Model the fold of this input.
Amino acid sequence: MNLVQPIRDINQIEQMKRVLLEQGKGKRNYLIFKIGINVGLRVSDIIKLKVSDIRYDNGIMKDDVTIYEKKTNKKKTFRFNLDLKNELQEYTKNMYQYEYVFKSRKGENKPLSRVQVYRFLNDSAKIVGINEEIGTHTMRKTFGYHHYKKYGDVATLQMIFNHSSPSITLRYIGISQDEINRMYEDFNL
Done:
């Protein structure tokens, strides 16, 4: 099994968003991708989100979203940026509190599966021309990679990802390999 990579190129991220919006599933796939690259949740936590997790009964979006991670069963609190918050409020405006935000078309109120997410991510990546191995973790790694590039703060990312050491976090988001490659390119005897 190959390790999945983050999407390092901002233009490819924008192209992925465009392709996901154009694929005929409304905003569902686009919003899953956007949450993944802006919050860094695992796909298993994104697809399990219910409207009540992100919005109050009166339709107002919550500032702080608290969930229990599926993999670790640990409590996690995060925020959506204003852009994402507005898009999610519009997307969920006609949904009931008990509904899954990202429903499968199979069943009354069933969440989308990891396999379905994997498929649409891979299909979109092929259209965009991304040659690296893409998987559901690509969204989380993309978040981490660009968060690190913007802030240079591995300690915060380590906390967000609940990793045991900074080296694990850097390896996870692909920074270690980038730095090794850059050193090889710069090394000349």
In short: The first strand starts at residue 65 and ends at 68. The chain has a mean pLDDT of 92. The chain has one domain: 10-186.
